[in-house]
Amino acid sequence: MADLERQHIASATEQYGALEPSLKKDTNDTTEKLPLLLGRWAVAPEQLYNYALTAYVVWFLIHRLADIAYICTVDARFPEGLGHLYPSEAQRLESVSYTRQVLLCGMIHRCVVFVAVFCLVYFQGFAKLDAALRAFFGGVAAWWESSRLNGCFGCCAPIGRVLSFCWSPFGRCLGACGGNYCVSLKDRIINGRLGTEINNRFGFTYSWRELLLGAVFLSLLGGLFFALSGPFMYWNQSLDLQFGFANSLSVTLTNFKANFIAALISSMISGIPQKFLFLCVLQYKFGWVFMWAGLFVGIIYAQYNVAMIAPMLGMNTKFPTSVFGVGRGFPMIETANKNAPWISLNRLYFPDTFSQAVGGGDPKVFYTADKSKGQVALAKSPTGKWTMSGTAWFDPSATVYAETVGTADKLVGGLTDVAWNLGGDGTRMGVRSGEKLRRKLFGFAQERRLGIGDVYMVDGSHKDARANAFVTGAGNHSIIGLYDTLFLGQRGADAPEEAIPEEDIEGDLVEGKSLVQRASEIVQGVDVEGEDRDKRPPRNSATTQAMNDNEIVAILAHELAHAGLHHMEMGMGAQVFTSFITFATLGWMAHSPLAGAALSLTAPLIHVGSAAYDHLVGPPLEGFMKLFTDALTRHNEYEADAYAAKISEKYGTGLQTALAKLSVNSNQDPDPPFYFEAMHADHPPFAKRWAHIEMIKKQTYGDKKKLL
To answer: Is 444 or 176 the better-scoring residue by pLDDT?
Structure first.
């Protein structure tokens, strides 16, 4: 039996093994046996190898030179005359520092990946890894034949007969298994008959052994590059914590490391069956067509059924129709709970509908309903004071964290005028009307016959302080996701308060993204451990500027313009076209003997071809196509800006000021160099968008000087 297995491994090595160095260099003999490139050109494997490696190196060098030039010249300045949009010079310098460090982190990460890929290609790493896995599994098979564990199959029959005597129904089954079936199963597995039967039934081109080996190959390679990315993911996370963008109450570097290791192990284990199924489809000559068609159908289904899959994106709560409270400027509160030693009061407070129904009138009790640590209750006492305290399940003693200095004349509205006993002058509690905002959103859309399925409140503050909102969905099935950070506005005890009328809505908004983009960005939150904290209160968050009603509606008009101008459908068409090219190239890499020979293989291997596409051919190809798709996206952004500005001059101005605040809130460079924009940006920078909106305003409403 061992001889048969070793013969199988030897034959597989001969069929799929690496080329001898002399064969790889002998291009004359190889070209005669290999097909023409795309059926037209006679290209030797050595030439194809050089072309692919040269394209990869050139693409890498161009991008890294652009990174270095940008890092050396970034100043994060607004265009002339708009410098006052920064609250202070310190804020501009912080934007410069953040931009440089993020660019440096990304550049070093890509350099490490480049070196790893270059070594894999230059030293025939793909073929050698494949040969090493074959040798390893061949050794395991030989060890199994000589191992004592192999004798357990022969013990099944006596055990089955004993159990059959003791328990007739169950024993008969096991006895049959021990007497005949286990021996048959052993023979079918070890001798390969089971694999042959599966191949014959399903028409597999590759044996199940080969597909399994390929799945292990891809999982190991994927785990390697994921591990290489770990230090830079850690670096990025530390930057977000350092600059106050990540919520330090629920995101820690200690937990990040633990979650990263768990994710690495999980991806290695779960990746094998996933890659196995992937290779099962890719093994067919036109398997890539089925993959592309599946993606195409999935994109269309997702965009026209966004309301159905909204819960998968974390949208489980519809936007409230009642009033809700917004905590602003409160310092961190230390608690006696070991699982949550510090909590934040700067959160959204939703009314207790039960107490309101019983007592009638305005709500007297509000509760937080987010994923942040520690639920907080906002309630009005019989004396007329409002208090914020821990709830019974979180803090059994219901400790009062903060209370108003005086009484509130109005039950709810008075909250906005009453001082609190901690936090200084910047501490306040705002009250917002959810129904008023919903009416504005739906009314605006109905006037222009733009369909909105629903509006959702998404909890994002428990992970990240940067505000976010998006509109997604094609046709008249769009949905709006508003993150709770939209209404928290300025955060941090030292953030100066902006005077905003109560009827205006406060918050920060970032550009919307498609459903596919959003789904790919959803990550699982991490918990916090009490022992990770020292006695100092963590940083509250980055300071952000609140937006008023006109700014929010202007950005909403911009986002809904994408639906009205059919930009979502255009984006889907572009994605379908580019994905066709990428899947076709993947299929060619997996099945072409020419590509296999260029990778030092005697015959094409689908898992080696797939890996070479992912790391060598795919990055420059997809990056090149991204230049055009990003240009299309930037064009659509200009059109959507013009759409909003033409509705009303105040919306044009509101969009300008909103984009300025967004740039400051996210530490974005408002005017990056043109080459960096062309190579990386799918949205135009603030400076160009502001100038474009100003031009539209002048063309539509006359040449009147408007100041921000």
So the answer is: 444
